[in-house]
């Protein structure tokens, strides 16, 4: 699939075989796609002044997320891997041409697709606003409405940091994002952004690139801080438990196409390389890469507040599909439920659609994700964790393999206790 993305005049150069996508403008109708107009308006309303390279990265991420929605995996030769070509108008095309290979590799790892880029001049620039505001916060944190980002934000504030929280608006999570930001530490600065990708056609549901746009929003915010304009480095925190960040294939058939790679060191490391090459003084950090979800709950620095709000967070991979309820049986739900059991400080009042995991039917114990966890536990018991992991920790960007293997072992133990609790066989 080919997309031509940029201002209207550039998008109009698309030939009949390409989808034109207008960036930062409302939908134009017809065959034109669009993305980013609401985000641009909100950034202007906040009177922020992000760097030009950060804005170019946002233009790239908006183009990527639109392609991720528009390109149907079912239409690819193998039913999954897509060929996607993007022509994107940016402000600094010469620089971004030097990053084509790194971008392609990062997105290939993230989405398991084949990406190619061509960069052109004439791209949109950050909005010009009067009376610029440079927020005085000392870092940026991605606040999704999920349990891990909730804990991460609590810990940052309790540890003396002053984070600027960035949320990607997702249906069903917007209110809890505002609630968390409004209560943690008595209230922290918060901006909610949406990519608003729109086009004529059905949307692909896998959405493997959604984390790229979330991180791009974070980069835009980080380069807007007073600290950044003073020439200092800005930490960008993406808070994810190590088990989900590594997300090793539970069985031989659950390969990368079935697992999110949002916070994997390989993807974050390649994105960090791009930021460094762009001269963007931002350090992407996941403080919980060596922690299980249960350990994050146990070690959270404000146990009283967490006990009150933890069950309100979202973990489910099918949350919208089940009427904004947790299914209880997908991998993220199982990891969540296992973590609550380990924590034990508060009852898990989440209310799962499929609560009784041990029932011997296709909706519970024989559901694919539940069986995958059970098979992984059995394989580890028989052959050991090293054999089960295989090449899961082979990325050269993984520094502490021993620490990660120990964390994954502890994470499996949390899942084992969950399965024992519900009698999963």
Output the structural class. alpha/beta
Could you give the order of strands across the largest sheet?
Answer: 3-2-1-4-5
SSE series: EHEEHHEHHEEHEHEHHEHHEHHHHHH
What's the helix count? 17
The 3D shape can be described as globular
Q: Quote the beta fraction.
A: 5-15%
**CATH hierarchy: architecture of the largest domain:** 3-Layer(aba) Sandwich
Low-confidence stretches: 254-258
The CATH class of the largest domain is identified as: Alpha Beta
The total beta strand count reads 10
Mean pLDDT: 95
What characterizes the major β-sheet?
A: 5 strands, parallel
Our measurement of the CA-to-CA distance between the termini, rounded to an integer number of angstroms, reads 44 Å
Assembly context of the chains: single chain
Counting structural domains, the number is 3
Describe the structure.
With 425 residues, this protein is α/β, with parallel strands linked by helices. It has 3 domains: 2-120, no CATH class; 139-199 and 207-285, 3-Layer(aba) Sandwich (Rossmann fold); 314-422, no CATH class. The protein is 41% helix and 12% strand. The protein has 17 helices and 10 strands. It has helices spanning 8-11, 37-45, 52-70, 93-97, 100-111, 147-158, 174-183, 210-222, 226-229, 242-246, 265-277, 293-299, 303-309, 331-343, 368-383, 385-389, 401-422, and strands at residues 2-6, 18-23, 33-35, 83-89, 114-120, 139-142, 163-168, 190-193, 234-237, 282-285. The strands form 2 sheets. The chain has a 5-stranded parallel beta sheet with strand order 3-2-1-4-5. Strands 8-7-6-9-10 form a 5-stranded parallel beta sheet, sandwiched between helices. Helix 1 (8-11) links the parallel strand 1 (2-6) and strand 2 (18-23). Helix 3 (52-70) runs antiparallel to helix 8 (210-222). The radius of gyration is 21 Å and the shape is globular. The protein starts with a strand and ends with a helix.
């Amino acid at each position: 699939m080919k997309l031509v993305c940029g201002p209207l005049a550039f998008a109009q150069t698309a030939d009949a075989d390409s989808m034109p996508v207008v960036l930062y403008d409302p939908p134009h109708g017809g065959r034109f796609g669009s993305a980013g107009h609401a985000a641009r308006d909100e950034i202007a309303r906040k009177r922020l002044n992000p760097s030009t390279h950060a804005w170019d990265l946002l233009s790239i991420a908006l183009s990527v997320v639109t392609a991720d929605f528009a390109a149907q995996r079912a239409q690819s030769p193998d039913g999954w891997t897509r060929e996607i070509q993007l022509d994107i108008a940016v402000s600094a095309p010469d620089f971004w041409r030097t990053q084509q290979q790194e971008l392609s590799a990062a997105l290939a790892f993230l989405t398991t697709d084949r990406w190619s880029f061509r960069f052109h001049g004439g791209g949109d620039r950050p909005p010009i606003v009067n009376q610029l505001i440079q927020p005085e916060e000392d870092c940026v944190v991605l606040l999704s409405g999920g349990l891990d980002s909730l804990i991460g934000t609590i810990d940052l504030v309790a540890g003396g940091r002053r984070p600027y929280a960035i949320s990607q608006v997702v249906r069903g999570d917007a209110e809890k994002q505002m609630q968390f930001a409004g209560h943690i530490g008595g209230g922290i600065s918060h901006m909610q952004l949406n990519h608003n990708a729109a086009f004529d056609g059905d949307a692909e549901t896998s959405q493997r690139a959604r984390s790229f746009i979330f991180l791009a929003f974070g980069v835009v915010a980080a380069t807007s801080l007073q600290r950044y304009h003073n020439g200092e480095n800005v930490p960008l925190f993406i808070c994810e438990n190590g088990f989900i960040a590594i997300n090793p294939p539970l069985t031989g058939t659950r390969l990368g196409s079935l697992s999110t790679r949002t916070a994997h060191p390989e993807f974050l490391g390649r994105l960090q390389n791009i930021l460094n090459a762009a001269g963007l003084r931002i350090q992407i950090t996941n403080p919980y890469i060596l922690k299980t979800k249960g350990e994050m709950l146990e070690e959270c620095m404000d146990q009283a507040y967490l006990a009150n709000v933890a069950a309100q967070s979202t973990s489910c991979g099918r949350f919208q599909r089940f009427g904004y309820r947790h299914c209880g049986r997908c991998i993220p739900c199982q990891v969540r439920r296992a973590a609550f059991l380990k924590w034990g400080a508060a009852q898990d009042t989440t209310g799962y659609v499929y609560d009784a995991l041990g029932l011997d039917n296709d909706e519970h114990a024989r559901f694919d994700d539940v069986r995958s966890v059970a098979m992984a536990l059995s394989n580890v018991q028989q052959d050991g964790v090293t054999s089960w992991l295989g090449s899961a920790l082979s990325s050269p960007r993984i520094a502490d393999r021993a620490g990660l293997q120990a964390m994954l072992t502890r994470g499996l133990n949390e899942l084992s206790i969950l399965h024992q609790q519900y009698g999963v066989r």
